[in-house]
Amino acid sequence: MRITMIGSGYVGLVSGACFSDFGHEVTCVDKDEGKIAALQAGRMPIYEPGLEALVAKNVAAGRLSFTTDLSASVAGADAIFIAVGTPSRRGDGHADLSYVFGATEEIAAAVTGPTVVVTKSTVPVGTGDKVEAILREKRPDVAVQVVSNPEFLREGAAIGDFKRPDRIVIGTDDEGARKVMQGVYRPLYLNESPILFTGRRTSELIKYAANAFLATKITFINEIADLCEAVGANVQDVSRGIGLDNRIGKKFLHAGPGYGGSCFPKDTLALLKTAEDFESPVHIVEAVVKVNDSRKRAMGRKVLAALGERGHGEAKGKTVALLGLTFKPNTDDMRDAPAIAIAQALGDAGVTVRAYDPEGMDAAKRMMPDLAYCSDAYEAAQGADAVVIVTEWDAFRALDLARLKQTMAAPVLVDLRNIYRRDDVEALGFTYSAVGR
Question: What pLDDT, on a 0 to 100 scale, did the predictor assign at position 189?
């Protein structure tokens, strides 16, 4: 099948590359000439394990191409996916749909025959109706069906998630569109991946509801972690104890500094705004957003406490090494990363921050230009009064702690991801601080 993917960011690029690997002919479109030039040269705009090799393979096979020419790409396509950004709108927190509607206008001007337009972007309930209205108004002469097909990709594991999905959600009531989407996902259907067909509005809400629930699990265990610290319990054992209940499950029950990234922050906020618009408040999600926002600054205060700060300026002039800046490992995504709020809290207290991340340094420098950036964890730790593990990259799971201690001004380790054992760290002479234990 001929597939056009409008938007060559995280979702569009990964989806386009995977569709081409299924044997479809895929064209990825983007207005950013620099991004398209880089992709044509084999350079990825994002870090995602395995993506560069997957793109190169399918470009060489002639199944995957990149262009800025939307009109030529749309003409004759069997399915046109809209995979542009929907960031939170400044001022009110609603999802900014200007890119979605802009792409729809261009599709309407370029489409030449019957086709299916698929919203892959995360969009509020009712967006598909508006996309359809634009297409009907602009091109009443062409039969175009609008389908919702939300993505459920985890950054750092996106290719595996796409090829071995928990489920594929397709929102349409049109039989012709349903057959087209079955053809698009035929390789996964043959592998017996569950395909859930729903109404379009239901499909749109499934995406937001899923992300809000996962964000709730993260926030729940983080609050339990605080309670564990207060009563002398161990949050890792609590997580295991409740996660063994099949009704709950162990995923997303890892205590830490809070959720971030491209999905949970904006999607929970967008769900709140949708609920407000329909006068059907979701108070649990509202609490989740508030707790998560406050937790990130609280982790900064936790680091200050480990430095001996008691509100009298004891931390001023000290140095902290932050290890891991991205919101999670195996990505270069810095959006709403807890490291941002932690670094800000430390800077406000007069602490010098030295930082290292395996993949997120370029993005971090644009957002936090005042930090001192280092080439590895050991350089960051030189002269530091504390080392703080913010992101659980594999590179930080087996640090030579004795080597770290030799170069530090004071042996303090703040483990915000609970990846080390207290006894092992304290045996080396460190003061150890973790989350919920």
Answer: 78
CA distance 38 to 337: 26
List residues bridging with 45 in a β-sheet. Answer: none
CA distances from 202 to 45, 135, 147 (A): 32, 21, 11
Give the distance from CA 18 to its chain's centroid: 18
| Adjacent-strand bridge partners of 171 | 148, 198
List the Cα angle 48/320/227 in 5-degree steps: 80
Low-confidence ranges of the chain (pLDDT < 70): 312
Task: Give this prediction's pTM.
Answer: 0.91
Distance CA 116, CA 270 (A): 26
Spatial strand order in the sheet of 319-323: 372-373, 352-356, 319-323, 386-389, 412-415, 431-434
As beta bridge partners, residue 65 has: 27
Measuring CA to CA, how many Å separate 312 from each of 290, 306, 346, 350, 390? Answer: 28, 14, 14, 12, 25
Positions marked catalytic = 263
Residues 402 and 424: their CA atoms lie apart, in Å, by 11
Looking at residue 186, what is its pLDDT? Answer: 93
pLDDT at 312: 65
Where would I find the beta strands (DSSP E) of 135-193?
144-148, 168-171
> Which tens digits make up the pLDDT trace of 15-54?
999 999 999 999 999 999 999 999 999 999 999 999 999 9
- What are the E-state strand segments in 284-422? 319-323, 352-356, 372-373, 386-389, 412-415
| pLDDT for the residue numbered 313 | 79
CA angle 10, 261, 211 (to 5 degrees): 90
